[in-house]
Backbone:
C-alpha cells in the first residue's frame, strides 16, 4: 500500500491505517510504504510499484468539471500514465467521450451519471471521504465574501465583490509562488486565479459551478464542430487600447502554437481559431467538445496581441515563457503592480473595467508554511486564505476564540480515494477482491475517529458538494466485514488454516460485468 | 595561500557536482511536480522539453557547469526567472538576519560569558548557566512560535510574518530596508534566532575564561592592583575570545543555511525558505543555485576564520 507519510499528510496516513486494518481482517498481509511528497508517489505509481495507491484530488473551481478528474484517472488511453490503476473499460471510455463531446447539458449529465455508476460498480478506486474544509476570514476587515464549496472564499467572486474595510484585500497562500506569466502555466495553480484578475477570460465559473459569459456576450454552436463567440462591446485593455476579436483569436492560437503545458490537451481539439469581424471569433474544432466553455474558455486570459505577438524576437528569448519581465497589461478588473514570489503579488483596481471590483487594491501574500499564514490571520494582518490550507482541529479551536475571525465549515469537492492496481499480476486485477476491500473500509471510523467529523464518508468519485454533477443514485459498498467475506467466498476465495486468504484457481475477472 | 585557494576551488567543484547528482537521485521529476496530479503525458512531455530535461544527464551537467563559469546559475523551473535574480535578494535577506543575530548573540553571549566566569561559584552564575543550557537545547521553531503568539497575536505589538507590511511589499528601495516597518518585522525573527544562538558563545567564552582566570599573568595583573574590570576584559577576555572568534565565522556560515526554520516560521523571504520551496517543487536549478551560494559562503568564511585566527594568534601556521 503506497500512501503519504505521517509528515506529508497525517490525516490521510491515519485513514489508510484504518483501511489497512480492514484488509488484514480479510486475511491479507498489508505492507504500508509512506512517501514524503506527491512527486515520489507519482513516480512509483507510474511505474506500477504498488497494489493500492492513495491519492487525493483537490477540488478546485476548474475541477468542478468531472471530466477533469475522470479522464486522466480512468481512461484506457492513460493506463500508462495518469491512470495509475490501469483501469480499462470500453463502456466507460464511450460514456466519457459522450460527456466531452456533447454540448447539451442534459445529455452530458446523463453520460456522466452513468459513468459514475459504472466506476462505483467496477471499483478501480475506493473513495474514503470528502473532507470538510474549514475556511476562515477576518470578518472585521472583509465583508461580503462569496463562499463556493470547491474553493471556500478563495474565488473570483470574492476578489470582485467583497469589500475590505481599508480598501486593500489581503489574501494569504501557504505555498511558494509560481510564475505569473500565463505562457508558463504548467497546470492549475492558485496563481492562475490571480492571472485571471489581470487577464479576462471569455467565460467565468460562477458560484453555481457553471460557466457564465464574461468577455463573451454570446456563444453559439452553428454545428457540432464550430463555436462562434461574440465579444462584449467596449472592452479595453488597461492601457486604453480596445480588446478585439483579433486579440482573442491570437491568444488561443498562441497558446496552442507554444504548447503551453496546461492547455496542450484542450487545444489539441482546436483546428482553427479566427476573428470574423471586429467582435466575433470562430473556433473550428477537430471533434465536438461540449465542455469548451468550462475547460478552456474559463481558464485562458486574453492577451493583447500587440504586446505578445513578436515577443521572442523582440526580447531575444526562446519562448514567451522565458520573457524575464513580462508586460502584464490585461483587460481584467485589476491591474498588475508588482510581484515577488516570496513575498506578495500586488494589484490595483482597474477603474476602466466593465465591472470594477470593490477593493481598491489586492495583495496576494505568500507564506512559507500554513502555520505562519494561520498566525498572521489571527494577528489580523491577512484577511483570508487560499483554497484549502488544511487547518487542524486545534487551529480551528484557537480561531474560534478570536472574535474577529469567521469560520465556515462545509464539505468540499475534494475527493480522498485510493486506487487499486488492476493490472495483470496484481491481486486486485480481480473485481471480487476489490469489492471485498471496499466493504472492509470503516468509513464512519475514518470520519469520526481520524478526521474528528471533519469529513463526509466516501461514496462516488464526484463529491456530493459538487451539486451540479454529483449523482445521488450511485450505490457504493458499505462497511460490512461479513458481507466482504461472503463476497470473497462467492467468488471462490478461501482461507487456509492460519486464516490467510487464498485466491481461487481461475482467471481474474477485471470488471463487475465480467 | 595559492594552495588554499586551489583547495577552495576544488571544494566548490565537488560541492557543485554533489548537489547536481543528489537532487537528481530524489524521486519525482520537476515536470511531474509542476504539471500536478493526473497530468497527461502530453502536458508532461511539453514541460519536460521546456525545462530542458529531455537532454541526457551528462549534457545537462556540462551545460550547467559551462553556464556557472559565466556566472549564470540557470533559470528557475517554477518561477521561470534567472536563479541569480531570485537567490541574491534572498541571500541578502538571510544575511540581514544572520548578521543581526550574530552581533546580538555573540555580543551578549561573550559579555555574559565573561561575567559568569568572573562570578563563578555564585548562585547568579549557576542560575544563568542553567538557563543558557535550557535555551541551547530548546528547538528554535518552538521559541519562534511562542514569540509570535505572545507579541503578535496576543499583544499585537509586532508583525507575525513577512519582511514588510502589505503597503511596502515589492519595494526594493534602500528606504524600505532602513524603515521602521522593516525593523519591526526584523525584531521577532532576530530575537528568536538570538535566544537560540546565544547559548554557544556564552558557554564557550565562560569556559575559556575560567581557564584564563587561573593563569599566572592574570594573577600578576591582579597583584599589580589593576581595576577589576580592566583585568577582566583587557587581560582576561581578550585571550578568552579566541575560540569564540573561530566559532563566530563558522556560526555565520552555518546560520546562512541554518536559518531555514526561522525563515519558514516567519515566512521571511530568505535563502532557507527558498531552498525548502525549491526542494518541494523539485526546482533543481533554484535549489542548486541557493545551495551553491551557501557553499561559497561557508568555504569563504572558513578561510576568513583561519586567516583571522592566524592574525590573532601568531603561533598558528596557516600552511
Residues:
Amino acid at each position: 500500500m503506497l500512501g503519504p507519510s505521517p509528515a506529508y499528510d497525517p490525516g490521510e496516513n491515519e485513514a489508510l491505517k484504518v483501511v489497512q486494518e480492514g484488509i488484514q481482517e480479510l486475511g491479507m498481509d498489508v505492507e504500508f510504504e509512506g512517501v514524503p511528497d506527491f512527486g515520489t508517489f507519482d513516480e512509483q505509481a507510474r511505474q506500477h510499484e504498488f497494489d493500492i495507491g492513495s491519492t487525493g484530488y483537490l477540488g478546485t473551481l476548474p475541477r468542478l468539471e468531472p471530466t477533469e478528474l475522470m479522464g486522466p484517472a480512468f481512461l484506457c488511453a492513460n493506463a500508462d500514465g495518469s491512470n495509475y490503476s490501469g483501469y480499462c473499460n470500453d463502456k466507460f471510455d464511450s460514456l466519457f467521450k459522450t460527456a466531452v463531446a456533447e454540448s447539451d447539458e442534459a445529455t452530458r449529465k446523463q453520460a456522466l451519471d452513468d459513468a459514475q455508476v459504472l466506476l462505483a460498480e467496477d471499483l478501480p478506486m475506493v473513495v474514503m471521504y470528502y473532507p470538510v474544509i474549514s475556511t476562515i476570514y477576518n470578518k472585521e476587515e472583509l465583508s461580503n465574501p462569496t463562499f463556493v464549496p470547491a474553493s471556500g472564499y478563495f474565488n473570483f467572486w470574492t476578489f470582485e465583490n467583497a469589500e475590505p474595510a481599508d480598501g486593500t484585500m489581503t489574501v494569504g497562500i501557504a505555498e511558494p509562488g509560481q510564475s505569473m506569466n500565463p505562457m508558463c502555466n504548467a497546470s492549475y495553480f492558485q496563481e492562475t486565479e490571480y492571472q485571471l484578475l489581470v487577464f479576462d477570460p471569455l467565460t467565468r465559473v460562477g458560484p453555481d459551478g457553471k460557466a457564465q459569459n464574461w468577455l463573451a456576450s454570446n456563444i453559439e454552436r452553428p454545428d457540432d464542430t464550430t463555436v462562434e463567440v461574440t465579444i462584449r462591446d467596449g472592452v479595453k485593455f488597461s492601457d486604453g487600447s480596445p480588446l478585439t476579436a483579433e486579440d482573442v483569436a491570437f491568444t488561443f492560437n498562441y497558446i496552442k502554437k507554444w504548447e503551453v503545458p496546461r492547455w496542450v490537451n484542450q487545444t489539441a481539439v482546436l483546428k482553427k481559431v479566427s476573428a470574423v469581424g471586429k467582435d466575433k471569433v470562430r473556433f473550428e474544432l477537430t471533434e465536438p467538445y461540449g465542455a469548451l466553455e468550462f475547460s478552456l474558455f474559463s481558464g485562458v486570459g486574453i492577451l493583447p496581441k500587440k504586446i505578445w505577438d513578436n515577443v521572442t524576437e523582440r526580447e531575444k528569448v526562446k519562448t514567451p515563457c522565458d520573457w524575464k519581465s513580462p508586460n502584464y497589461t490585461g483587460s481584467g478588473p485589476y491591474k498588475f503592480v508588482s510581484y515577488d514570489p516570496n513575498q506578495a503579488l500586488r494589484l490595483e483596481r482597474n477603474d476602466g473595467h466593465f465591472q470594477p471590483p470593490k477593493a481598491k487594491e489586492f495583495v496576494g501574500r505568500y507564506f512559507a508554511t500554513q502555520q505562519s499564514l494561520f498566525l498572521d490571520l489571527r494577528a489580523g494582518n491577512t484577511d483570508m486564505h487560499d483554497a484549502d490550507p488544511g487547518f487542524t482541529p486545534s487551529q480551528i479551536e484557537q480561531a474560534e476564540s478570536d472574535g474577529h475571525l469567521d469560520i465556515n465549515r462545509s464539505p468540499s469537492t475534494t475527493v480522498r480515494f485510493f486506487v487499486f492496481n488492476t493490472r495483470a499480476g496484481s491481486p486486485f486485477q480481480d473485481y471480487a477482491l476489490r469489492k471485498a476491500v471496499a466493504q472492509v473500509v470503516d468509513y464512519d471510523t475514518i470520519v469520526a475517529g481520524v478526521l474528528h467529523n471533519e469529513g463526509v464518508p466516501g461514496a462516488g468519485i464526484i463529491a456530493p458538494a459538487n451539486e451540479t454533477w454529483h449523482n445521488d443514485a450511485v450505490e457504493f459498498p458499505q462497511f460490512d466485514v461479513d458481507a466482504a467475506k461472503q463476497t470473497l467466498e462467492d467468488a471462490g476465495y478461501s482461507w487456509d488454516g492460519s486464516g490467510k486468504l487464498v485466491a481461487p484457481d481461475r482467471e481474474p475477472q477485471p470488471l463487475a460485468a465480467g | 595561500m595559492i594552495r588554499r585557494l586551489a583547495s577552495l576551488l576544488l571544494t566548490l567543484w565537488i560541492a557543485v557536482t554533489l548537489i547536481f547528482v543528489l537532487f537528481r537521485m530524489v524521486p519525482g521529476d520537476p515536470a511531474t511536480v509542476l504539471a500536478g496530479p493526473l497530468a497527461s503525458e502530453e502536458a508532461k512531455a511539453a514541460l519536460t522539453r521546456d525545462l530542458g530535461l529531455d537532454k541526457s544527464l551528462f549534457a545537462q551537467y556540462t551545460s550547467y557547469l559551462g553556464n556557472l563559469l559565466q556566472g549564470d546559475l540557470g533559470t528557475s523551473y517554477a518561477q521561470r526567472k534567472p536563479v541569480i535574480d531570485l537567490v541574491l535578494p534572498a541571500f541578502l535577506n538571510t544575511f540581514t538576519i544572520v548578521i543581526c543575530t550574530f552581533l546580538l548573540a555573540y555580543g551578549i553571549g561573550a559579555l555574559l560569558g565573561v561575567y559568569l566566569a568572573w562570578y563563578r561559584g555564585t548562585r547568579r552564575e549557576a542560575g544563568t548557566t542553567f538557563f543558557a543550557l535550557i535555551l541551547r537545547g530548546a528547538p528554535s521553531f518552538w521559541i519562534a512560535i511562542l514569540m509570535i503568539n505572545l507579541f503578535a497575536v496576543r499583544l499585537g505589538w509586532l508583525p507575525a510574518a513577512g519582511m514588510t507590511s502589505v503597503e511596502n511589499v515589492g519595494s526594493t528601495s534602500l528606504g524600505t530596508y532602513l524603515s521602521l516597518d522593516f525593523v519591526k518585522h526584523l525584531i521577532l525573527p532576530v530575537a528568536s534566532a538570538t535566544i537560540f544562538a546565544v547559548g554557544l558563545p556564552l558557554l564557550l567564552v565562560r569556559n575559556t575564561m575560567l581557564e584564563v582566570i587561573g593563569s599566572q599573568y592574570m594573577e600578576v595583573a591582579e597583584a599589580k592592583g589593576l581595576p577589576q574590570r580592566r583585568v577582566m576584559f583587557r587581560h582576561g577576555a581578550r585571550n578568552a575570545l579566541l575560540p569564540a572568534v573561530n566559532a563566530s565565522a563558522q556560526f555565520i556560515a552555518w546560520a546562512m543555511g541554518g536559518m531555514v526554520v526561522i525563515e519558514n516560521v516567519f515566512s521571511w523571504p530568505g535563502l532557507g525558505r527558498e531552498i525548502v520551496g525549491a526542494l518541494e517543487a523539485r526546482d533543481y536549478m533554484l535549489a542548486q543555485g541557493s545551495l551553491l551560494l551557501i557553499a561559497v559562503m561557508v568555504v569563504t568564511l572558513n578561510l576568513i576564520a583561519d586567516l583571522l585566527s592566524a592574525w590573532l594568534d601568531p603561533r598558528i601556521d596557516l600552511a
Remarks:
- Chain B touches chain A through 62 residues (CB under 8 Å).
